[in-house]
């Protein structure tokens, strides 16, 4: 239910009819609550002053996105205009962003690149040889490797030529194939990074694992290659060695009665802001050209090309939906929306600062590879962390790096690469995070040091008995091409070793741990890689529930959860439930979801979640906001306990989980019991009996988005299966179908 705060309402009434195009200043507003936690907050229309000190384009005009002037660390000056100007858009990152592998061999002659290109071309053309498609793909990689080792700087040129000849890329942006190929495969965009892969991949032997992965995932399914079978982690005592022969200690410690009445903590969980600093008000918001709400966006159904000259607008008849000041469903968050979400938190939390926050990654906008750069990443991190600092109290904000928070996107390379250049290629990023976590006052200097060593990850104890271990999840993400080298090692980045060592130490210290990351390990298995997510699953089984209290992820933009079970998920029943991961909904509305933030109530001794409140704003209302003289209305969507705590159908003799959890007389989850893995697993059992709960869940997944598709009985069964799949192998065994795994379109 919408509860507009009375002060804001008064302002709104005062201004109705005064059709000014300027946001009104200082609409004061307070939290109001109808009952319990059903808070709602109406943002003022004015951009909150004081978040940014300097501006390129000042807020105060609904026809333009405000552009903060952000200082570039170390240089003393601002980031260059090309980072955030809506037009003209940059055609590629600076050449200095390119990082090549060292030259390993002498090229036999000056025209080696031409020879290799000719041989690859004939390999593609002469497909009447005996070699099957996948083997031809691997032969192609071997040719590329020769060049990458002998003349690394020549690889991008060959890639651009081949791309242009064989139409590797889409031309939906309105650019020619040749132009897209040039932008996409130049050294500074993807060219040098692909050169590294060619140089470092192990392509020896008949069916080289690295080669199969590279062909199946980077070249694509057309290569005819399939991913190799998952590694058997029990072979050669791998898992025994992994855990140092230590056995599981599964008993969970009893909490003392004295804390029963202690005030619960409030923990903010937010994710996937994806701020778009080049958002172009008036541009095409329902585009077919890639990133929408940009000066170069267009929809091919109603327009044949982007507006010309850059910065002009298509005629109204050639626009399907106009980009508006507060944002649109197919676009990343403009600054006013991103800031409004963070501004809303204190108001939604009854006027009090949250005790701490978890941000599960992705700050940088989704974009064509050539519009990304190291500077765009550091600009976004600086501006967003400063905004968090402004609105979220003393923090700390425990932030995980997302797959979009690097340039090129999705990429993180292991510290074990042979050459120094590539080994250090992301240091600019990890070092910037280290600096910011300390500068915002969240981490001590000593604590921050870990961030550089662990790809943006760290292990920190912010309160007695609690430890937060944050990981760079790119190392299990399918989109990270560096995962396709050294594939015989399920942990080539070393992050799961780090996690295990930190968990072991935490267990010794009797701490409870929250694991924080970006990319989820499970659900339908479309994001994670089998081997690292399988190993992660075994680690969770080893240390939960005694030491691992919860796992926090983001990435999908959707409100989801995953239950992890004992014994490799062989019996996924509630008695075997050991841990739960929460996927937070996104702040970006892309694609077709409503912006949302979540606040948990957490037990201050066990650090288990007792409940959470999900808040959202209806993006569908945004086009009308300038006239209504207020900003987005942030509203309570549901509380987890209220929405899901009724176990009337699966309860046997008033209890669930084989009688281990005694319900209330009304069949409700006991008021004192946490919403732990047993709860979420029992919920999936209840869902099997009451399919309307899955319908409800899907409605929450997209946060009441009018664009969310329905879910038939096949889809309902699939969703229950996804909830019970904490790793990629399990997720891939679930049924699939259109719109089953996601409400986005
Ligand atoms: C608002 O921005 C538009 C587009 O840049 C500009 O044409 C207009 O003059 C601005 N209006 C005001 C009041 O600044
Ligand atoms: C390219 O093909 C020619 C003709 O088959 C062959 O002689 C040459 O060795 C090949 N070059 C490389 C680098 O494999
Ligand atoms: C060989 O290439 C042609 C033309 O590209 C294609 O039609 C055919 O299916 C290919 N054959 C094999 C065995 O890949
Ligand atoms: C690439 O696209 C162009 C233009 O659409 C077309 O003429 C050409 O045949 C395509 N080439 C290949 C190899 O598919
Ligand atoms: C867990 O089960 C999956 C099949 O669901 C199997 O591929 C994997 O090897 C098993 N892992 C372990 C450690 O037993
Ligand atoms: C393009 O515009 C048409 C007509 O307005 C619309 O039906 C379609 O959904 C739009 N395409 C996308 C991808 O949004
Ligand atoms: C706009 O739409 C009209 C009518 O469909 C069409 O004739 C014209 O070419 C379009 N203009 C652009 C720039 O796409
Ligand atoms: C969850 O809480 C219930 C009730 O306190 C308890 O019986 C169960 O063992 C807990 N489950 C886990 C995985 O900690
Ligand atoms: C719990 O759910 C059942 C449907 O299975 C419903 O009949 C009952 O009224 C619900 N209980 C409460 C207290 O809402
Ligand atoms: C729980 O109950 C089910 C069904 O009655 C039974 O098959 C299973 O063995 C029980 N599990 C445990 C751990 O008691």
Automatic annotation (TrEMBL):
CDD domains linked to this entry: MPP_ASMase
One GO molecular-function entry: metal ion binding
Binding site for Zn(2+) 1: 272, 274, 362, 557
Cofactor binding note: Binds 2 Zn(2+) ions per subunit.
GO biological process, alphabetically ordered: sphingomyelin catabolic process
Protein residues bound to Zn(2+) 2: 362, 403, 518, 555
Function of the protein: Converts sphingomyelin to ceramide.
Family stated for the protein in its record: Belongs to the acid sphingomyelinase family.
Protein name: Sphingomyelin phosphodiesterase
Species: Meira miltonrushii
């Amino acid at each position: 239910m919408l509860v507009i705060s009375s002060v804001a309402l008064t302002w709104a009434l005062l201004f109705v009819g005064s059709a000014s195009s300027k946001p009104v200043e200082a609409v004061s507003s307070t939290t109001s609550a109808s009952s319990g936690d059903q808070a709602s907050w109406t943002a003022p229309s004015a951009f909150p002053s004081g978040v940014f000190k300097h501006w390129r384009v000042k807020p105060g005009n609904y026809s333009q996105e405000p552009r903060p002037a952000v200082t570039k660390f170390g240089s003393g000056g601002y980031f260059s205009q090309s980072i955030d100007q809506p037009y003209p858009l940059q055609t590629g990152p600076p050449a200095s962003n390119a990082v090549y592998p060292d030259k390993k061999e002498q090229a036999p002659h000056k025209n080696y690149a031409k020879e290799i290109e000719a041989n690859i071309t004939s390999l593609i053309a002469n497909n009447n040889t005996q070699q099957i498609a996948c083997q031809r793909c691997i032969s192609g990689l071997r040719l590329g490797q020769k060049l990458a080792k002998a003349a690394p700087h020549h690889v991008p040129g060959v890639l651009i030529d081949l791309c242009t000849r064989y139409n590797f890329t889409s031309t939906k942006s309105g650019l020619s194939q040749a132009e897209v190929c040039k932008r996409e495969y130049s050294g500074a965009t993807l060219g040098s990074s692909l050169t590294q892969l060619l140089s470092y991949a192990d392509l020896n032997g008949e069916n080289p694992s690295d080669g199969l992965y590279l062909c199946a995932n980077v070249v694509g399914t057309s290569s005819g290659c399939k991913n190799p079978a998952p590694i058997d982690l029990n072979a050669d005592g791998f898992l025994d060695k992994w855990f140092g022969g230590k056995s599981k200690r599964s008993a969970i410690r009893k909490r003392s009665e004295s804390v029963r009445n202690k005030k619960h903590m409030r923990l903010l969980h937010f994710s996937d802001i994806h701020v778009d600093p080049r958002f172009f008000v008036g541009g095409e918001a329902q585009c077919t050209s890639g990133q929408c709400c940009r000066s170069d966006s267009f929809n091919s159904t109603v327009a044949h090309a982007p507006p010309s000259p850059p910065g002009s607008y298509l005629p109204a008849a050639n626009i399907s939906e106009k980009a508006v000041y507060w944002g649109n469903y197919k676009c990343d968050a403009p600054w006013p929306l991103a800031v409004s979400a963070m501004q809303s938190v204190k108001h939604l939390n009854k006027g009090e600062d949250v005790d701490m926050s978890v941000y599960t990654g992705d700050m940088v906008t989704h974009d064509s590879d050539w519009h990304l750069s190291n500077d765009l990443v550091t600009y976004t991190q600086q501006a967003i962390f400063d905004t968090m600092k402004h609105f979220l109290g003393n923090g700390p904000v425990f932030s995980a790096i997302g797959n979009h928070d690097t340039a090129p996107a999705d990429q993180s390379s292991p510290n074990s690469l042979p050459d120094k250049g590539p080994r250090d290629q992301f240091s600019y990023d990890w070092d910037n995070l280290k600096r910011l976590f300390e500068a915002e006052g969240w981490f001590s200097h000593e604590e921050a040091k870990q961030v550089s060593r662990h790809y943006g990850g760290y292990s920190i104890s912010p309160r007695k008995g609690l430890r937060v271990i944050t990981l760079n999840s790119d190392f299990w993400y399918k989109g990270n091409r560096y995962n396709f080298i050294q594939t015989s090692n399920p942990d080539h980045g070393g992050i799961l070793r780090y996690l295990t060592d930190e968990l072991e130490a935490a267990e010794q210290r009797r701490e409870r741990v929250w694991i924080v990351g970006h990319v989820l390990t499970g659900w339908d298995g479309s994001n994670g890689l089998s081997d690292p997510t399988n190993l992660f699953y075994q680690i969770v089984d080893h240390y939960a529930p005694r030491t691992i209290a919860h796992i926090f992820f983001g990435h999908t933009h959707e409100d989801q959860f995953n239950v992890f079970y004992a014994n490799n998920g062989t019996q996924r029943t509630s008695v075997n439930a050991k841990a739960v991961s929460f996927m937070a909904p996104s702040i970006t509305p892309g694609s077709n979801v409503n912006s949302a933030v979540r606040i948990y109530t957490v037990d201050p001794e066990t650090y288990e979640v007792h409940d959470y409140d999900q808040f959202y704003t209806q993006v569908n209302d945004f086009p009308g906001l300038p006239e209504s003289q207020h900003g987005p209305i942030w509203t309570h969507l549901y509380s987890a306990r209220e929405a899901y705590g009724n176990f009337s159908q699966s309860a046997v003799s008033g209890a669930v989980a084989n009688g281990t959890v005694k319900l209330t007389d009304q069949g409700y989850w006991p008021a004192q019991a946490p919403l732990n893995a047993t709860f979420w697993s029992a919920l999936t059992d209840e869902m099997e009996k009451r399919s309307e709960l899955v319908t409800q869940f899907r409605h929450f997944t997209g946060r009441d988005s009018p664009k969310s598709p329905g879910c038939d009985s096949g889809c309902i069964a699939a969703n229950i299966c996804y909830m019970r799949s904490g790793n990629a192998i399990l997720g891939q065994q679930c049924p699939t179908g259109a719109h089953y795994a996601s409400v986005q379109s």
